Amino acid sequence: MKNSLIDAFNIERKIPKNIGVTDYEVFQDKKLLDDLRTKIVENLIDKEMPEDKLLTEFINDEIDRTIEGYDLSNLERSHLFNLIDNEINGYGPITELLEDKNVTEIMVNSPKEIYVEIDGQLIKDESVSFINDDHIIRTIERLIEPLGRTIDVSNPMVDSRLPDGSRINAVIPPLSTKGPVITIRKFKETMVGIEDLIRIGTLTPYMGRFLDAAVRGKLNIIVCGGTGSGKTTLLNIMSSFIGSHERIITIEDAAELKLRQQHVISLETRVTNYESEGEVTIRDLVINSLRMRPDRIIVGEVRGKEAFDMLQAMNTGHDGSLTTLHANGAWDALNRLETMVLMSGLEIPIKAIREYITSAIDLVVVIERMNDGKRKVTSISELDGFIDDNIKLKEIFTFKQKGLTEKGEVDGEFILNKYKPKVLSKIMARGVNDLDDMFNINKK
């Protein structure tokens, strides 16, 4: 669609917008509406606007000319006008999905294959479709153009964030053999505190209190989990426990963390330019952050060589650092850390790496997306020395799954293991003394 139409047009509807695009199921002849939408969009793309016509008049005339002779109801006409409005003023077919607060993820696999996540469940949305692959690519370009990003054959992949904090990933051929693909993980503004996680059953009040104390007590913590498990959400909420007097440096590929504190410096990586120059990596930013007098360093996700620099920061007085790591459990997280340190190119024996990890990391928090789509913190463990040169993990909290209910929901219980964690001494040394009742600290 031509830029003049995209930038200047603000459609004057002849029929009130009284039906949403997502109310598509009320129509009998859906194929007809899809065909008409296709004709209107393609006509607007191919035609130049006459100099003697106003833009709104030109658009409305084009729509009326296309649907002339069809016996459409008012709702069907309104639906078509809304679709064209979304093409010009929004982001095409996914405009209303982006606005729907119940939708947490949008996945465009092909023109007729669009999935959404609602309440943790993936659903194929039959009401939304694109005309063809070019239509998807135009929508991608519309989404990323304000971000200063481009996508083409020489740069066929983009990973960035939208102005509202949502994360967008787009891949086009030749990397994607199926055609252009869009994945949007929407920023969830409603999840604002640990109380929200407790309310929906992600963790218990005891677990929430413990994580609060652990962060205020400046423990070094890794949050791990699989894709879409809620790592960033949990990290964001845990970051809110940091004192307002502290200087916080956040480091991310695409800034998703929304900290409430005033003294926050957000750093973001940079990809290479057309000359394959100018790249700034997570590792570069971690190293640079040490020169910025941080009280806290928060790395959105470690996935490579920067792991060694993060551990080094934790081992050299930068207590209270937080990060996430893609792993399916605490053991997996530690194994991945070992591998990442080896990636740094330093010839360090495995035993020395494990000692380095043990001296740096205090807690590993595991969050999982369960079979019913809900997220749960399934484990909070401390690193407790070694057994036969292997790092010893000891679980403080555990989620034990019993099975599924008749409704298909996960049935289980959170368990507070009956022992006094070693990290309590670090927490209490920082003046945080509100866990006495949880671990019977004053009892022999």
Draw up the topology in text.
Elements: H1 3-8, H2 30-46, H3 55-67, H4 74-89, H5 95-99, E1 103-110, E2 113-118, E3 121-124, H6 133-144, E4 157-161, E5 167-171, E6 181-185, H7 194-199, H8 205-216, E7 221-225, H9 231-239, E8 248-252, E9 264-268, H10 282-289, E10 296-299, H11 306-315, E11 322-326, H12 330-343, H13 350-360, E12 363-369, E13 375-387, E14 390-404, E15 410-416, H14 423-429, H15 436-439
Parallel strand pairs: 7-11, 7-12, 8-9, 8-10, 10-11
Antiparallel strand pairs: 1-2, 1-6, 2-3, 4-5, 5-6, 12-13, 13-14, 14-15
Q: What structural class results from the helix and strand content?
A: alpha/beta
N-C termini distance: 74 Å
Average residue pLDDT? 84
Question: In total, how many beta strands?
Answer: 15
Subunit organisation of the chains:
single chain
Largest β sheet strand count, sense and barrel closure:
9 strands, mixed
Tell me what portion of residues adopts beta-strand conformation.
Answer: 15-25%
Radius of gyration: 26 Å
Give the helix level as a range of percent. 25-40%
Q: Describe it for me?
A:
It is a single chain. The protein has 444 residues and is an alpha/beta fold. 34% of the residues lie in helices and 22% in strands. The protein has 15 helices and 15 strands. The strands form two sheets. Strands 9-8-10-11-7-12-13-14-15 form a nine-stranded mixed β-sheet, sandwiched between helices. A six-stranded antiparallel β-sheet has the order 3-2-1-6-5-4. Helix 2 crosses helix 3 (55-67). It is elongated.
